[in-house]
Design a protein that fits this description.
single chain; mainly alpha; two-stranded antiparallel ribbon; 6 helices
Length: 171
C-alpha cells in the first residue's frame, strides 16, 4: 500500500478497557506503532551518518540520508492517515477523549492540506515540478475520504450521546 503497512492487535479482553487518562491501553499501543514508522527513518539516518562508505549497492550515503529525511518529513505531516496524523490523533485521544481527538485531528488535517496546497502550487509554478501536484492529489483524496468518515463518526457519537442522556432521564 502507498501509506505503508497495516498492524492489528490481539488484545486481552481484560486489558481492553484499562484507562490511560481519557483513552485505553490500546490507544497507547497504536501510538507506539505510529511513532515507530518514522523512527525507522531516524535510525537509518543515524546509521548512514555514521558510515564512512556506501552501504547499499554503492549508492552514495548522502543520497540515502536525504531520502530518509524526506520520507521522515513527509510521514510526520499532521494529516491523517499519515503517521504524523495518527500520532496527533492518539495523543489528542489520550488527553481529550475520542470525540475531541476525531474532531481536532480532522480540522488540523484540513488546515495542513490547505497549507500544502499553497506550497505545492507555488513550487509547481516556480520550478515547473509537477511531481508535488500528484502527491497533493493523493493527499486530497485521503483527506476528503477521511472527512466523510469523520462526519459519519461524529454523527454516530452524537446519536449515542443523545441516547445515553434519554436513558439516564428515564431511569
Amino acid at each position: 500500500m502507498p501509506i505503508g503497512f497495516a498492524v492489528s492487535f490481539k488484545m486481552d479482553i481484560n486489558n481492553y478497557n484499562k484507562k490511560i487518562l481519557k483513552a485505553s491501553l490500546l490507544t497507547i499501543k497504536k501510538l507506539i506503532i505510529a511513532i515507530s514508522g518514522p523512527m525507522v527513518n531516524v535510525i537509518f539516518i543515524i546509521v548512514f551518518l555514521l558510515s564512512k562508505r556506501p552501504l547499499i549497492f554503492n549508492i552514495e550515503t548522502n543520497l540515502l540520508i536525504y531520502t530518509n529525511v524526506l520520507i521522515f518529513l513527509f510521514n510526520m505531516i499532521m494529516i491523517y492517515p499519515l503517521d504524523g496524523g495518527r500520532i496527533l490523533k492518539h495523543i489528542l485521544h489520550i488527553f481529550g477523549g475520542r470525540v475531541f481527538s476525531l474532531k481536532y485531528t480532522n480540522i488540523i488535517s484540513n488546515i495542513m492540506t490547505a497549507i500544502l496546497t499553497v506550497m505545492a502550487t507555488y513550487i509547481c509554478i516556480t520550478y515547473c515540478n509537477f511531481a508535488y501536484f500528484f502527491v497533493l492529489i493523493y493527499i486530497w483524496i485521503m483527506v476528503l475520504k477521511e472527512n466523510k468518515v469523520c462526519k459519519m463518526k461524529l454523527k454516530m457519537y452524537e446519536i449515542l450521546q443523545n441516547y445515553r442522556q434519554k436513558d439516564i432521564k428515564n431511569n
